[in-house]
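Here is a protein:
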Amino acid sequence: MLVDDLLTRPEDGRQYEVVEGVLVRMAGSGELATTIAATIIVVLGAFVRSRALGRVTSSDGVYKFPGAETGLLPDVGFYGAALFPRITDRDKPIPFAPELAVEVASHAQDEDDMAAKARHYLAGGTRLVWVVWPHAHTVDVWRKGHGRAPAARLGSAVMFDGEDVVPGFVHPVADIFA
């Protein structure tokens, strides 16, 4: 399957990704996970837009990774303004990996599943991945070049940090779980 086919696939009420040419059905999310993702989109989006730093995308945004035929749909994605010229057709998948990918774990996803997905993002060029664990109220931070495990696990008492990917962005972790 080609990544471009994701946008023309007949609607069947399900969401899919393409991983190395294979169509993969994604698990749905409940109200908790979707509310957390929406909160992150609003907060991150307002920050990014007010500073003209780039674009924030929702779970409908298909990112086409370089090399293997892979298209992933993070719950929240970000890419910087410097990448705008690489988008030649806004009706096609975004032609690169997100610089920041946020995945909110659903009840059906475990640590091994989410670690594999985070590593897939990083291998494809993503620089920063946040894996949000709704029931534990924690966020795993994965960074490019850091290895096979999260660089940090953030609890509710600390702040998200956009690091050099979304410069200046800091936000209380606890807020996304409120």
About this structure: The first helix runs from residue 31 to 50. The chain has a mean pLDDT of 93.
